[in-house]
Amino acid sequence: MSSFIERSSDQAELRTRVAALVRQGHYQAALDALKKSQPTVDDLRVDMAEVLVRLGRAADAERVVDSALRRTSGPTTIGARCQMIRGMIDRDRGRLGDARESFLRAIRDADECGDKGTAVWAALRLILTVAEESGPQAAAAIVGSVRRRLSQLGDAQAVAAFHLFLGEIESKRGLFDAARRHLRTGRSLLNDEPNEWLSGYADIAEACVGYLESDIDGAARRALDALGAGMASGHRMTTVAAKATLAQVLLSKGELVQAEAELHEALAQCPRGGGAETGILDTLAQIRLATGDFAGCSETLLDIDRRASSLDPQSFYHLCAALTEIRAALTAAKPKQALRAATRAYESAKQRSFSTLSTSLRLLQAEALVRTGRRNRAVTVVAEAAAQAGPAPMDTLAEVNRVAAIALAAGGDLAGAGTAFER
User: Would you tell me how many other CB atoms lie within 10 Å of the CB of residue 372?
Assistant: First the structure.
C-alpha cells in the first residue's frame, strides 16, 4: 500500500512539473521529464501525447491517444483531451472537416465532465479551423460563445491565445488595425505569464501583418524572433511558420537563393497535406516563376494538389496558391486560362471574406480580361476592386494602379496609363 501511495505521489508531482513546463511553452523539457519517469497512468500519457504533437511527432502522439481511447468509455476528461489532440493532428495534416468534428466532440465531452480548460482550448482551436476551412465570417459566428467560456475559466494565457488567434484572422480579412489591437492585447496578457509558443505565434502574426503593410524590415525581425521562440520551445510548427514567413520576406527582397533554402528546411519539418505545406510549396512556385522557370513553377503547383489532396481547394492556402497559378498563366500568355482560374478563386475568396486575397484575385481577373480583349469590362472590375480594397496596404494600391494602367493603355489612353503607373 505504501509503495502505491508513493507512486501516486510521484505521478502527481510529475504532472505538476510537466504542467508548469507546458504552461511556459517549454515542450522539449516537458517531454524529457516525462521520459525519465516512464508514465503509467493515462493522464500522464495524454500529457505526453499533447507534448509530442507540439514537437511535431504526430504519429507517436496518435498511438498514445488511440491506446487511451480504447480504455475510455463515455464522456471523460481523458477522452475530451484525446479528441482535442486528434483535432490538432488533423488540422496540421489539412483534414479540416475531421479536425472540426474532433474539436466539437472534445468540447461536448469536456462540458459533460466539467473540464472547462479542455473545452476552452478546444474551442480556441475550433475558431482557427473554421476560419481556415470556411473563412473569417464563419469563425466570427462562434467567437461570442468562446468569449463566454473564457470569462468563466479566467485563464490569462487562454485569453491571450484568443486575441492572438483573432489577430491572425483579422489580418486575413484585411483589417490590419483590428489585427494589431488584438495582437497588442495578447502580448500584454503574456507579460505576467510568458509562454514561448504563444510569443512565437504573436511574432509570426505580427510579421505577416507587417509584410502585408509593406513593412518588410519589421516583418523580417519578427520572423527571426519567431524562429528563436520556436527553438526555445521546441514547437515544430512555430519553426516551420517562422522559416516560411522569413522566406516570403526574402523573396520580396529578391534574395531568392536564401529564400529557397529556408523553404526546403521548413518543408522537411512540415506535416504532409496541411495548409503550412501548401503555403511553403506556393512560395517555392513563386520563386520558380520569378526566375522564369515556368515548368518548375507548374510542377510545384501540381505538387500541391498531390500532397494536399484532403485540403479543401477553397481553403485559404489553396486560394493563395491560386494567385501564383493565375500569374503563371498570364506570364505564359494564357489569358483565358488565367481568367477562368481568377474568376473561380475570386468567388471563393469573396464568399469566405478573405478581403485582401479577394482584391488581389479581382485585379488579376481584370488583367486577364484586358488580355482577352475585354478592356471595358476590365476597367469596371478595377474600379470595383479599388472600392472593395478600402484602407488597403500600399502593395495592393500599387497593384490597383498597375492593372488600371494596363487597361488604359490597351484602350489607347497612354496619358492616363502613364499617370496610373506613376501612382
Answer: 14
Nearest-10 crossing angle of helices 2-24, 27-37:
170
Does the pLDDT at position 19 exceed 70? yes
Cα 139 vs. chain centroid, distance in angstroms? 14
Query: Do 251 and 259 form a contact (C-beta atoms < 8 A)?
Result: yes
Low-confidence winner among 133-137, 183-187, 228-232, 341-345 (lowest mean pLDDT)? 133-137
Alpha-carbon separation of residue 239 from 99, 131, 195, 200, 266 (angstroms): 22, 22, 15, 9, 8
126-152 in b/e burial notation, b at 16+ Cβ within 10 A?
A: bbbbbbbbbbbeebbeeeeebeebbee
Assess whether pLDDT exceeds 80 at residue 400.
no
| Spatial CA neighbour of 313 closest among 365, 359, 275 | 275
Query: pTM for the full model?
Result: 0.89
For range 94-122, the mean pLDDT: 96
The three grid cell numbers given for residue 105, joined into one nine-digit string: 466532440
In the chain, how long is the greatest CA-to-CA distance? 93
414 burial type by CB count under 10 A (0-12 exposed, 13-18 middle, 19+ buried): exposed
- In this structure, of 134-143, 294-303, 363-372, 405-414, the range with the lowest mean pLDDT score is 405-414
Distance, CA of 94 to CA of 308 (rounded, Å): 7
